[in-house]
Design goal:
This protein is α+β, with helices and mostly antiparallel strands. The protein contains six helices and 14 strands. The strands form three sheets. Strands 1, 2, 3, 4, 7, 10, 12 and 14 form an eight-stranded antiparallel beta sheet that branches. Strands 5-11-8-9 form a four-stranded antiparallel beta sheet, with no helix packed on it. The longest helix has 14 residues, at about 55-70. The radius of gyration is 18 Å and the shape is globular. Bound molecules: 2-oxoglutaric acid (AKG).
């Protein structure tokens, strides 16, 4: 990989550009709060469509950074926690998946502090929002691969207690044809399932489900969104996405956050290349910035 001369943006715990609005007052933020019906849907289903997060200028900037970052030799490549040009390893089913973009691209960094994201995230977490990590998921035109059914927390048990959430943000319209995300409503009430693989086989999960879960699993809900819209999901909600069969890419930025106070449970680095956070110690420091503390 290119050794790069890029600076590590994780040293900056706040926006570096004016791409996203800055607001301080509770009143300014109120427009991004979920209403009671949306909160009830979150409790009932384990996912909820959020506010429109991005305008066309922000979408274009994020797309441009993503295009630059999808070339493995780009400057700053040393800052990735994970980088898979094709996580499926099957050239006919490409899934670009990478963690750590916030350290490299300015828009991908600044979106963490976007109040349209942090405000509803704090509401769902019921407390201050701390960054865990980001993810890019891209399925190219015609041969974009699947994201197999999974619960996010299966990948995160090295951090406890479970007070995490995911915000999935589309950079393209996402549809049934291009591989939008599907959710299994109510699966956030299931126990934690073992990891059965992320980029390969959509049927792999079947072998770890009980009969009752398998019956509930029969009606997953596709969430089709316009570019710039988002959906939040609970860390136990089972979700996945099918192939992209269209002539255009399906790109997404995913933000994973925790309620402040979530601790490491591992004596190993929580993310590749990051210093160890000793077990029992809350996440903090350069790689886990506090994004927003709601006023009481
Ligand atoms: O983008 C996708 O298709 C899957 C995203 C996903 O698994 C996630 O946001 O946790």
């Amino acid at each position: 990989m290119h050794s790069g001369s890029a600076r590590d943006l994780s040293l900056h715990h706040g926006p570096l550009s004016e791409l996203f609005p800055q607001v301080e007052s509770v009143t300014d933020r109120a427009k991004w709060l979920f209403n009671d019906a949306q909160l009830a849907a979150w409790d009932e289903q384990g996912f909820v469509v959020g506010p429109r997060l991005l305008n066309s200028v922000q979408i274009e900037q994020l797309r441009a950074e993503l295009t630059m970052l999808s070339n493995p030799g780009h400057p700053g490549a040393e800052f990735w926690y994970e980088y898979h040009s094709n996580e499926s390893r099957d050239p006919g089913k490409i899934l670009f998946h990478a963690l750590g973009a916030w350290r490299i691209g300015i828009a991908l960094h600044d979106i963490l502090w976007h109040p349209a994201f942090t405000t509803p995230a704090a509401q769902l977490l019921n407390g201050p929002v701390r960054f865990w990590h980001d993810q890019l998921f891209c399925k190219p035109a015609h041969h974009g691969g699947v994201v197999a059914w999974h619960q996010d927390y299966s990948y995160w048990t090295r951090t406890q207690p479970m007070a995490h959430l995911t915000c999935w943000i589309g950079l393209d319209d996402s549809t049934v044809d291009n591989g939008c995300v599907y959710y299994v409503p109510g699966s956030h009430r299931w126990d934690l399932l073992p990891i059965t693989g992320l980029a390969g086989d959509m049927n792999a999960i079947q072998k770890v489900l009980t009969q009752e879960q398998w019956e509930q699993f029969q009606n997953p809900v596709p969430v089709q969104l316009k570019a710039g819209e988002c959906v939040f999901h609970h860390p136990l909600t089972v979700h996945g996405s099918f192939e992209n069969r269209t002539a255009n890419p399906r790109r997404a930025v995913v933000l994973n956050v925790v309620r402040d106070g979530v601790c490491s449970q591992s004596d190993q680095p929580l993310l590749d290349g990051v210093p160890v956070v000793p077990p029992g110690t809350p996440l903090s420091g350069q790689f886990f910035p506090l994004l927003y503390t709601p006023s009481l």
